[in-house]
Amino acid sequence: MYCSELGKFEASCSGRFLICLTTFAWTCLLYPEEKAFAEDKRAGCGSIVEQSPSAQWFSSKSSKMTNSDFDAKPMVMLLGQYSTGKTTFIKHLLRSSYPGKSLTLSLSLSLCPVLFARAHIGPEPTTDRFVVVMSGTDERSIPGNTVAVQADMPFSGLTTFGTAFLSKFECSQMPHPLLEHITFVDTPGVLSGEKQRTQRAYDFIGVTSWFAAKCDLILLLFDPHKLDISDEFKRVISSLRGHDDKIRVVLNKADQVDTQQLMRVYGALMWSLGKVINTPEVMRVYIGSFNDKPVNEAATGPIGKELFEKEQEDLLADLKDIPKKACDRRINEFVKRARAAKIHAYIISHLKKEMPAMMGKAKAQQRLVDNLGDEFGKVQRQFHLPPGDFPNVEQFREILKGYSFDKFEKLKPKMIQSVDDMLGYDIPELLKSFRNPYDRL
């Protein structure tokens, strides 16, 4: 890959806002012929917002992409309550277990401890950490603090969640043909009750949201006996908003009930999801028993077995499409980030303009924060912007309390125009010659 090119871009735009720039540079890393195009547009993208407190906040919410992000394989994250078969699902696809933390052996010639124990599976909550299962030359498990500082891995952004999280995070590497194209993210089981949430020593919802932004597919696993969506699970699903196109639902262990019960379970699951996922579209649900055991035909009958086999084929086809769609998704993410940066520039410029020149700044700022929804409406009407592109009002209000609006930067129309031209003309032109690297395999 052309990783050095990104370094040149960042050096040339030192002190600038690089959110859009670094995302767009991804296309250069794959396609050398597009370097000149990115070079022409870097000034407009990289300078849409000057380095200000608000820009620093935007960067923290949508972290700057690094070379490892561009080189990373597509990721699939599995979410669900405990014992719904997340770890077993990965094991089923790999046809073997992956290395998991149990026993640490310190090697005198190694820079970090290497863990050789296998992942444990059981009816109790067994996965108590986030585990990234990825390709490697040999089988080993690397602790989270080590993973977060490795330049060749796309997990440096997780350091913002602190040591409490990194001690519950690890990377499991093993040689496997599937892992050469896809990386899996196994997660701790979501437990029910407010008490379970407060016992976590790190921001579980925040970590889930961070991975959701990085992943190409998110699988929500349920089983027939765990259809209730707990308070924490509702918060987890809510944190996935904006990534609805990545979400798939898997009703696992479906051979534990007969055909009549399965129909009722499916209806109950759709009813529960409809209360949490507020979308007019029907969520795609894969039904099956994703483990290495044969289907329980005594409960499901021959029709159920045929159904499960077809559903598994559909799910596997969806997984196989992920590498092919990875390039398209990078472009899609770039467009989303560019639009978000543009909206952000409009908002902070408007807030600065509404501030008085001399007296009453504190009262004016408090009034703007209290009426932030109305201010969003003014910006939307003035610049004819889609309301769906604006950030969450409550979250934006909470963050703004830590900044002085009079220190925000003024809007630069030329920068906005440069981004509009890029999104309106240059990106469509780029897509005409777009090639998928996986098509060459």
Automatic annotation (TrEMBL):
One of the GO biological process terms: endosomal transport
Taxonomic superkingdom: Eukaryota
PROSITE patterns: G_DYNAMIN_2
Main location: membrane
Coiled coil: none
Cellular component terms per the entry's GO annotation: endosome membrane; plasma membrane
Protein name (database record): Dynamin-type G domain-containing protein
Species whose genome carries this gene: Ficus carica (Common fig)
